[in-house]
């Protein structure tokens, strides 16, 4: 029997809960003493993760590696697709930019190269790990794409992995989506599905039971589990499709109002997740001028197409409103990565790295000019910042194409080895930095929020939650929930049985 036992998690749709179930399984197998790795052959996401060697993968596989207690590598996500414009994306192969491609060209010209990259990456994992938890993408029933797909049943056949099909009951029509997906699969792929998991269930399970019984009788596939909805699960997401769930705080009255500008190509939006656990923060995403108001803090997050997202801010009037609030001293403003670039004087893209737009004036709040370059910076970063009259260590990661140059910078934010990074002028209530993950630094986040509270005449809060600890607790909560509600013994038996069969590619 091969050393590795693979297991694949596919879904009836995007955001069905594949990543969460795969994360839980990574944690469970690791807890049970198996050396476990995640794998997603091809990932389309704008929320990425930087490995220890400065390479870039999808954030979900970075999170799953953390859950498994290992360091993430590019083998866990050998192909990352980062949309830059409609029908065009940057292709990242083995953690490094391969080039920008149109969707049709990717399918027709890159397919065989992609298949080779995927197979080699998986084989390296299989030679090292005892369990590999494989995540699919979208749905395996995309019949218009299945002849050249690189992420669902082709990968299941390549690795000879049994497949669990996951459906989100919150969407409605859960049995229709499960039955329809199974019926659209080729017979040999349908046989590879060992059962289904219904995800995010709320309510009385006895009311669902007749449907479960009918499904098993109609399809011949077992219900492997019904996983309940888990509130306040602080595990990083990667797909912007989940941003609709972030609207829950929109009408919640809190002492600090935070507005995050949601432009069309927003990336690494989980940078702002720590604010959700703060007892005094109301956090909301803003796409229209009338939604902005006069918040205490505005965050300009990262972007995969900085110039066109800056153009969006101009066209919507949000750029002018941010500048006006800044000049009035009404609001603290923080720009991260692409948002940091937007706060400068101008952005130039002479080679069309991200956009046909060659240059745009920025918001002009920071004396800085950014030029897009072909070479991408991807690095884990650490340095010493001075904020609120305190020196503190901050950690994060950088992912950006542009290089920024200052006409003058008397207010550097972070002192790193051999260089300074970012801009911080507390009197102007303005911060810009390439550091993703800035707000995940609990000490800095506490100082920033208490600075805002002081400005509003409110007492400080010193016992704020540790977001890092909450995320680690989230892995255990997710694993414990899946253990209680999923037939893991049945899954384990199928994993062993499948490796006794001949691999079919």
TrEMBL record:
<feature type="active site" description="Nucleophile">
    <location>
        <position position="337"/>
    </location>
</feature>
<comment type="similarity">
    <text>Belongs to the CobB/CobQ family. CobQ subfamily.</text>
</comment>
<feature type="domain" description="CobQ/CobB/MinD/ParA nucleotide binding">
    <location>
        <begin position="7"/>
        <end position="233"/>
    </location>
</feature>
<dbReference type="InterPro" id="IPR004459">
    <property type="entry name" value="CobQ_synth"/>
</dbReference>
<comment type="function">
    <text>Catalyzes amidations at positions B, D, E, and G on adenosylcobyrinic A,C-diamide. NH(2) groups are provided by glutamine, and one molecule of ATP is hydrogenolyzed for each amidation.</text>
</comment>
<dbReference type="InterPro" id="IPR029062">
    <property type="entry name" value="Class_I_gatase-like"/>
</dbReference>
<keyword id="KW-0169">Cobalamin biosynthesis</keyword>
<protein>
    <recommendedName>
        <fullName>Cobyric acid synthase</fullName>
    </recommendedName>
</protein>
<dbReference type="InterPro" id="IPR002586">
    <property type="entry name" value="CobQ/CobB/MinD/ParA_Nub-bd_dom"/>
</dbReference>
<dbReference type="InterPro" id="IPR011698">
    <property type="entry name" value="GATase_3"/>
</dbReference>
<keyword id="KW-0315">Glutamine amidotransferase</keyword>
<dbReference type="GO" id="GO:0003824">
    <property type="term" value="F:catalytic activity"/>
</dbReference>
<feature type="active site">
    <location>
        <position position="436"/>
    </location>
</feature>
<dbReference type="InterPro" id="IPR033949">
    <property type="entry name" value="CobQ_GATase1"/>
</dbReference>
<dbReference type="GO" id="GO:0009236">
    <property type="term" value="P:cobalamin biosynthetic process"/>
</dbReference>
<comment type="pathway">
    <text>Cofactor biosynthesis; adenosylcobalamin biosynthesis.</text>
</comment>
<dbReference type="Pfam" id="PF01656">
    <property type="entry name" value="CbiA"/>
</dbReference>
<dbReference type="Pfam" id="PF07685">
    <property type="entry name" value="GATase_3"/>
</dbReference>
<dbReference type="InterPro" id="IPR027417">
    <property type="entry name" value="P-loop_NTPase"/>
</dbReference>
<dbReference type="GO" id="GO:0015420">
    <property type="term" value="F:ABC-type vitamin B12 transporter activity"/>
</dbReference>
<dbReference type="InterPro" id="IPR047045">
    <property type="entry name" value="CobQ_N"/>
</dbReference>
<feature type="domain" description="CobB/CobQ-like glutamine amidotransferase">
    <location>
        <begin position="257"/>
        <end position="443"/>
    </location>
</feature>
């Amino acid at each position: 029997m091969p050393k590795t036992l693979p297991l694949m998690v596919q879904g009836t749709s995007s955001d069905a809960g594949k990543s969460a179930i795969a994360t839980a399984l990574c944690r469970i197998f690791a807890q049970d003493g198996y050396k476990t790795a995640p794998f997603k052959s091809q990932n389309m996401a704008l929320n990425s993760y930087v490995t220890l060697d400065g390479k870039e993968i999808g954030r979900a596989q970075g999170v799953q590696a953390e859950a498994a207690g290992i360091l993430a590598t590019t083998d866990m996500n050998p192909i990352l697709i980062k949309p830059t414009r409609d029908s065009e994306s940057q292709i990242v192969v083995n953690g490094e930019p391969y080039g920008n491609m149109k969707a049709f060209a990717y399918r027709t010209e890159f397919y065989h190269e992609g298949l080779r990259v995927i197979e080699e990456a998986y084989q390296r994992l299989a030679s090292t790990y005892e369990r590999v938890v494989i995540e699919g993408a979208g749905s395996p029933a995309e019949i218009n794409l299945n002849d050249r797909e690189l992420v669902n049943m082709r990968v299941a056949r390549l690795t000879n992995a049994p497949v669990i099909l996951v459906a989100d009951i919150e969407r409605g029509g859960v049995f229709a989506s499960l039955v329809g997906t199974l019926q659209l699969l080729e017979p040999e792929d349908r046989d590879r599905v060992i059962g289904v998991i219904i995800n995010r269930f709320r309510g009385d399970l006895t009311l669902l039971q007749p449907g479960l019984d009918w499904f098993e009788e109609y399809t011949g596939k077992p219900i492997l589990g019904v996983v309940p909805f888990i509130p306040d699960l602080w595990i990083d997401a990667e797909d912007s499709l989940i941003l609709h769930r972030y609207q829950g705080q929109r009408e919640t009255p809190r002492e600090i109002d935070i507005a995050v500008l949601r432009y069309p190509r927003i990336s690494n939006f989980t940078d702002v997740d720590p604010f959700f656990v703060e007892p005094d923060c109301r956090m909301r995403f803003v796409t229209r001028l009338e939604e902005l108001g006069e918040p205490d803090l505005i965050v300009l997050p990262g972007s995969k197409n900085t110039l066109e997202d800056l153009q969006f801010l101009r066209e919507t009037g949000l750029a002018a409103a941010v500048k006006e609030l800044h000049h009035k001293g009404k609001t603290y403003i923080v720009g991260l990565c692409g948002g940091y670039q937007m706060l400068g004087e101008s952005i130039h893209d002479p080679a069309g790295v991200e956009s046909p737009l060659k240059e745009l004036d920025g918001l002009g709040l920071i004396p800085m000019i950014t030029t897009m370059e072909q070479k991408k910076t991807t690095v884990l970063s650490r340095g010493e910042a001075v904020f609120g009259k305190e020196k503190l260590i901050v950690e994060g990661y950088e992912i950006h194409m542009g290089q920024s140059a200052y006409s003058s910078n008397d207010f550097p934010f972070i002192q790193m080895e051999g260089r300074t990074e970012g801009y911080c002028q507390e009197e102007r209530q303005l911060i810009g930095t390439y550091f993703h993950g800035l707000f995940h630094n609990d000490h800095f986040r506490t100082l920033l929020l208490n600075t805002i509270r002081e400005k509003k005449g409110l007492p400080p809060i010193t016992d704020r939650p540790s977001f890092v600890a909450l995320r680690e607790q989230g892995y255990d909560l997710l694993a414990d929930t899946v253990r209680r509600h999923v037939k893991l013994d049945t899954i384990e038996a199928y994993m062993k049985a499948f490796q006794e069969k001949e691999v079919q590619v």
